Records
---
Amino acid sequence: MTALTLAPGLVYHPGYLDRAAQHGLLAAVREVMRAAPLFTPRMPRTGRPFSVRMTNCGALGWVSDEGGYRYQPTHPDTGAPWPAMPALLVDAWNALARYPHPPEACLVNLYAAGARMGLHQDRDEEDFAAPVVSLSLGDTALFRYGGAERRAPTRSIKLASGDAIVFGGPARLIFHGIDRLLPHSSDLLQEGGRINLTLRRVTCPKKA
Ligand SMILES: O=C(O)CCC(=O)C(=O)O
Ligand SMILES: [Mn+2]
């Protein structure tokens, strides 16, 4: 499938995963969720819950609560290390990131009907040289993106099951979010809803 450059550094890969690959990835993500149960993140300061539930795999996981946004090596509820990143995710990073070091974190977002994610930047990483690689499974979502400043104009595209989007270089710090899901647009997840997998490099690689 051809990749489309939506803005400098923002590359959309529609249908990156075929149906068999989506099923394979879903099975791997279900394993991750068994080992690291979904938790409900909360907004810093207010403690207001997010509408998505989350978990992570990889050496580091992104969490949010009254203490702030951060990466940590353990699950906030169980205290266990995050499960290893499935090979299929590392493969996707290797194919899409064009970055010579492996990802350290994969945030798993589960959107039930009605869940959304407000416009934000991914900026809790030390290393903005690496792109963010995002994969979608299940119901189609309306993905909104703008520029590196919140007030920049925004556009939206639909992210369907199997689509990938990469934001790096000049797009690494773009504002983005999910306005809503298109209910019943995919039958990949029996229970409906959407899973998003966001792969990130967190730390700066050590110089050799
Ligand atoms: O669900 C998505 O497609 C976006 C998720 C996201 O931006 C994030 O987790 O930081
Ligand atoms: Mn994000």
---
Amino acid sequence: MSAAVSEAMPGMEEKVTDGTTKMIGVIMAERLYAGLIVDHQLVGELKSVPPASVKLGADEDNSMVEMPTDEVIDSICKLAVEVAKGYGSEILAVGVAVPGLIRNGVVEEAPNLPQLKGARVEAKLTEKLASHGISAKVYVVNDADAVAAGLASKHDKLDHFLRVWTLGTGIGFGTYPFAEGVWENGHTVVTLDDKERYCGCGGRGHLEGIMGHRSMRLRFLDMEPEEVFAAANRHPDPDPRCLEFKRLWHKALAAATASSIHSRGPGRFFLTGYNVRFLDLNMLKDYLHQMVKMSPLQSYMLEVVEDSHATRVLGAAVAAEQAVGR
Ligand SMILES: [Zn+2]
């Protein structure tokens, strides 16, 4: 038998492997997705619950919102067993990306998936997987951090510090490399206006309260966000209320980005998520230029990248790998 024995990580059983690093990445989007990652590459297709053949309703995110926590854990386990097929005992780590504030494997807050608040996902999943022959370390990571790790891996920047904004139902902010801590920059206060209270967390003046998809629907009860931006971009007569909002949306993102630059320095920012389609990069750069005036801080870079489930799944696994190696 030519299999080599990998070096044992502290606190882990030794794994018999063929020399490759095998991990599983799991993400929560409009469905649960999982994939097998071998040496930083996705192998085979992503599997999902519900499966891709099941059509979802108009409200894209409802299949996850309505899934009770125990069912989420069971479904992740089922997916992991499925994608690990044949390699169950060789899986080094399972990374689970969750849109929320994660500490010590516990989902402490998840405004857009409220049923997960307080869920001990790491502990429960570790136990469940073990009963199916997968003795891997489980790491729960913030989903935006997973996006950052996925982009770092995909763009060959595993040795760079990078930040990412994910513009979706909520506003995620991720950093790479993986580190312990909290950076809920989606909840950066970007306005002192008392009327700005649309954020899912209940806080006043937050970035997500302006840019988040759910918040936009609350603000414009009579229009969908797509219609708001279409009306703002209409030539030659844009809707004044919508145009004003489009400017506020970009100013808010510029403000939160400027705050991050002022606290952590310039560097590379990726912008992604399904609402990156609303982004006018020139408008953002213009506002940012007005907000960051110290010349040593002006060497920041903004890059729009397409959102993909595969990048997030890869990132969940890479972030987990780094957590294992700590
Ligand atoms: Zn908030």
